[in-house]
Amino acid sequence: MFVFRKLFGVFLAALLLGGALKVGGDLKAGPEVQGALKPQAVHREAAEEIVDRLDLHYSRLSFDDALSERVLEQYLKDLDPNRLYFTRQDIDDFQVYRDKLDDQLEDGELEAGYTIFNRFQTRLEASLTEILADIKGGFEDWNFDGDEEVLVDRGEAPWAADDEALDAIWRRQLKNAVLSMRLNGTEDAAIQERLSNRYESQLNRVRQNTSEDVFQTYMNALAQSFDPHTNYFTPHNSENFDISMSRSLEGIGAVLQYEDGYTKVVRLVPGGPAAKQGRLKPADRIVAVGQDDDDLVNVIGMRLDEVVDMIRGPKGSNVQLEVIPAGSASEHDTRTVTITRNKVVLEEQAAKKEVIEFDHDGETMKLGIIEIPAFYMDFNAFHRGDPNYTSTTRDVAKLLVELRKENVDGLVIDLRNNGGGSLLEVNKLVSLFINRGPTVQVREAGGRVSVENDQYPGMLYAGPLAVLVNRYSASASEIFAGAMQDYGRALIVGDQTYGKGTVQTLLDLNHGKLKMTNAKFYRVSGSSNQNLGIVPDVNMPSLIDKDQVGESSLPNALPWDEIQPADYERYQDLMPLLPALRERHDKRIRDNPEFLYVEHLRDLVADANQRHELSLNAEQRKAWQDQYDEKRLAIENALRKYRGEEPIAKMEDLRKLEEQRALDPEAGEEPMKQDPYLRETGHILADMVGLLREQRVASEGS
């Protein structure tokens, strides 16, 4: 089975590089693309225009040899993220381009991008053909009792030395897939059918690649070398600003991105079908899509716009998504999620309030909570002059008036999972909690800084305030939380936020569009939200893996930095209170089963994800799985015991329970008054009020 690959390697080197490269590695004048797919004149013109536009990118990168090297690395990573197709010889052959791509691109020359892609295409077709032959041969003679291991993440692994080494890598990958599915209870016949369908679908998709596909892939490698939010869109998908389901009329309500060959979930839109269904999570990777009860179609390696088109559909219809859950150690440990398409209902994004009472050091406290899922505004109604247009600030203002009548002792603004929205709205929301002053600074690519200001004097709410955030709090949420922290107006509680502090603009091209980062947000203190996010004053335990979610997890993300602070005055300095607040918080949650559950589950998943290699010995693998399941059940049952619920005997029962919760997520939704994070935030706020009172008494007595 390996003879073809060995002959193919020799043939490929002669065919693809013979006309493009000379001995010694220098490019011929005007090199011709080697391979079947070639650029069109419109692509060359568009490439020159993209280069011109990128000169205005916020980072101001020069088109030089350093950028050339960066683009080459990004392109190879985009094509072969797990190093399963190219060999070391391929990579060595491509090194001739390491300092040439900048010159080629400035001249609209696309030879390198197309020649490399054609090599990839040929390699990929050959690999998939051999993989399918192996799968169709069956698994009866495969050995699962040796000491073989498979590398979990090949992103940084050495390139295969030759064709034989590449075959060995694929053999282990396939054995891992079969073993993973066997341990999940899947029969061999079903495994064979499932893997055959996956790789046949991928092979069919590969054979449909066009010159336009190559151009989009290559231009995105160039764009993403500047930062992860700079993208090129072909005319086919240029109407999608950020490939966001939130902008489709009817879909599932999810923001997606292409990463390492997969379609990855960035965030869910509050009020959208996916968020309400509850089973799709940020950092999940979509590997297949199906319509209603039709067979699933493999989408690994498929362009993002194609995947989006498959997921969209008419209201009321179902879409099936096969996903690799976030944190899964194997790409074959998948689950299928069925979501009914619908419109994202604005009312379900609306802010809502509740008052909860709790005992704090023997005193009953009334805590007002306002949950803000998104920063929304009905722009159409606003531009029509409708005085009753819907907006976050208007809704929150009404809720604040109602809470004031209820004489609450403190207020929590809950921004967990709030991915942002209208900049106008977040500026106006800040104005409800400060008297007057700057709210955020915006620095443009050329260095000019503009300051957004609160134009309305007075505060609608001046009492004790906390802002609850998590890793999914992004963009506008970070602007609000940062302003509250800088003014000393609120305690920030929870987890470090996402770190999205850049601004993008959409530029028309002669062929498609370019979304480009052209500005950065800065807090009034001068600190950027970018990459770092908002660091809470008091941290809460979290299950979210910062290595998988957040700006800092994205390649080529712009760094954190600072500019001059704006002219503003702090209301109070909460910094001296933080050591005491953190100490009391830590003491309270140390033995709290709700938070112990999060910490223990996080540690268990982290330990599992730290395995760099998986055993291909069935007995050893099953022993590890049994041990993991035992620990997982113990963690679950400790919480159930605390809540007065019956323990779960087997992992199968826990999986069934989670499936039932997924079918009716709203039924299992925790009321605000039972949410341990909100209650603990209330305790922290009460501690702050008490410490401030002690400060005042001490100050008056001195």
UniProtKB/TrEMBL annotation:
Gene3D superfamilies: 2-enoyl-CoA Hydratase, Chain A, domain 1 (3.90.226.10), 2.30.42.10. It comes from the Bacteria. InterPro entries: ClpP/crotonase-like_dom_sf, PDZ, PDZ_sf, Peptidase_S41A, Tail-specific_protease, Tail_Prtase_C, TSP_N. The keyword Protease applies. Keywords: Hydrolase, Protease, Serine protease. It holds the Pfam family PDZ. One of its GO terms (biological process) is proteolysis. SMART domains: PDZ, TSPc. Coiled coil: none annotated. PANTHER family: CARBOXYL-TERMINAL-PROCESSING PEPTIDASE 3, CHLOROPLASTIC (PTHR32060:SF22), TAIL-SPECIFIC PROTEASE (PTHR32060). This is Tail-specific protease. It comes from Alloalcanivorax gelatiniphagus.
